[in-house]
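We now fix the convention by which a protein and its fold are recorded. Here is one such record, which you should read through line by line:

>
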Amino acid sequence: MSHDKRLRIVVGFLALSMAGCGSASNASAAAGPFVYVANTKSDEISQYRASPSDVGALIPLTPATVPTGPFPYTIAVDPQGTSAYATSSAGEVSQYAISPITGQLTPKSPATVATRSGGTAAIAFTPDGTSAYIVGANISQYSIDPVTGDLTPKSPATVATPPNPEPIAVSPNGKYAYLANCGGCGYARRKTPSHPAAGAAAADRQPAKPSYLVEYRINPRTGALSPEPIARVTTGNGANWIAVAPNGKSVYVATSTSGVWQYTISPTTGRLTPKKPESTGGNEHNIVISPDNKNAYVIGVSSSGVSQYRINPRTGTLSSEPVSTAATLLHPEALAIAPNGESAYVTSENDGKVAQYTINPTTGKITPMSPPTVRTASGSLGLAVAPEL
């Protein structure tokens, strides 16, 4: 599932300018964007650059990994591309600075920040990079230092949620946050003395019926969420991921039981109204929307595939059937698209590889690269692509 926008952008541009003055060859050799994968079985993050000269194929950085907390479930990069944050089953968030030249992650000081909600599962940011929201048993909310990127708890530090919250997303205008309660899914909060057993449902967590997609209002001055949801609509059980369209008009929820649920956003209140049809597709795990708002890409664990759906430019509804598909590794977990919309990446729970794809800029068709995969540690769940400055 960031900071004072103007200052962050200035800092980013200054960093890039100084890098260019020092060594143009080094900067161009390590040009991003950069891709990060959270590996649960080795408690580390794999780091790559996506080669612009090779259609976005991943190249491991040196070093190829950095350590993180136990059982990292999610990794996210702030909107400015200067900081990365990884959740942990230990109820903490590891925070890193991103080198604008090499893309390498360096632990901040302090290296971790505690959450108030136990094991954590999802991270979302306001578009201006001033606030972060981290979902566990509830939502922990933070301000992000405009210079260092450090997380500081807001007041109040947490916000209540429906039972079993999981995915969270923020509207492009920064006014609303949407969260779904995911009955029976989630890895981060099921802990054992060693590593948790990966699985789509924990035996001790029964599906919540019905499940809801709830809306919080974001305070424009403080970034704090409203103490309680201001509205809710029914959504499918097993909600795994929420995607908000870049144009701010639609919300999509990937569920493991009933496909992708789709909603229209009110331009004045942020309230959600189910589209017609209410849902489409099979049992899905993750969904992302292309930067041009023309296509949605969905991965399904049972199908071990990634599917492209067209988005109706007038209604925002997804096409009833995929217009292109491609195979993934077994048990695909997370999906991300490069900032230019021309490459995509998928992690796998058990295969120790990341699948990589090209996206046709005209048709949106998704096709495996050559080679179709790159190595990573086993148990890769979280995935993030840094935006290009």
